[in-house]
Amino acid sequence: MRISTRAQRIEPFYVMEVAKAAGVLAREVAHTDRPMIFLNIGEPDFTAPPLVQEAAARAVRAGATQYTQATGLDHLRERISGWYKSRFNVDVPARRIVVTAGASAALQLACLALIESGDEILLPDPSYPCNRHFVSAADGKAVLIPTTAEERFQLTAAKVEAAWTDKTRGVLLASPSNPTGTSIAPDELRRIHEVVSQRGGITLIDEIYLGLSYDDAFGQTALAIDDNVISINSFSKYFNMTGWRLGWLVVPEVLVPVVERLAQNLFICASTVSQYAALACFEAESIAEYERRRAEFKARRDWFIPQLNALGLNVPVVPDGAFYAWADCTGVAEKLGISGSWDFAFETMKRAHVAVTPGRDFGTAETAKFVRFSTASSMAHLQEAIARLRAMTAQ
Ligand SMILES: Cc1ncc(COP(=O)(O)O)c(C=O)c1O
Fold this sequence. Notes:
Aspartate Aminotransferase, domain 2, single chain, 7-stranded mixed sheet, Aspartate Aminotransferase, domain 1, alpha/beta, 3-stranded antiparallel sheet
């Protein structure tokens, strides 16, 4: 069968190979005194809190399961708008919010609405692999720009300016980022947006981890800068609803009918049950629970990062958000007689029964040096993982 060049352009998700191998080994060691600890998982270890679960059950019982309008339940758009006001003190009118099937659908809609065939979009290297594939699936070209620890592994205005060509259509940023958990400083973001706007480009920013921000200096939405910024967000991470497949997109008003038309045709709507459930995310009781969980993620970060550094798994920038640690494993790998983060990940899995994610999927610049640890695991698991890594590196 002839496969489209578009589909062929999508690179394999190498992480899945590691995850598969970890799954096989996990079954083998499940009943030993060292079962596998999964620090390769990119989703919260918490589930939706009680009010959200009850709201979903109520919607099912009431038969509130028909399609909604493509832009989502008005009440939910209002609630998201209210969240921007209460959490970030930013006015984002509900009419600019489009509810989607996760940030993934939001990214797809934004890319399809704005990217012409051959348009180039600038992204940082490292970055979340699917983001460059959304660009590519819209027939655009993702241009990865190597970043440094000094730049918090994010694009800078100077780099955007230097990389801009007549084919460049805009930037796709993520703040805080996956895999680094680091954000763009607000002033730098403002400068990036200025460079982009002066060239008639678009600033797309994936803010899916913004709710899980631990530092007031960074925890601000880019929507505060300008109504032309396009922000992608989700119920997956802060709201602990990964499998519910619900997110949203904030666009300038002129884009709403365009995105609506695309959403009507491509998705009809996001899951109705999930939308009714998500209304309960914004109840005081749920927010209080989310804030407790955010504090737990922060406590894990505060404990885990110094431990990694002490093992020689150097985390060059302390993450200010999300639940990741981007650690340079070259020194430790050399000591163990292996080269590169890919082999390091397999070695760690085999010797310590700790699954981590090698840098490979996230770009090409320095990704052979780095592994991503996820702290979306209990403190007990993190402590046990560090003890095993210490034993492994001491051998
Ligand atoms: C940076 C980033 N963007 C988007 C997504 C997709 O999220 P969603 O579950 O909302 O589709 C993820 C998921 O891990 C992510 O890390």
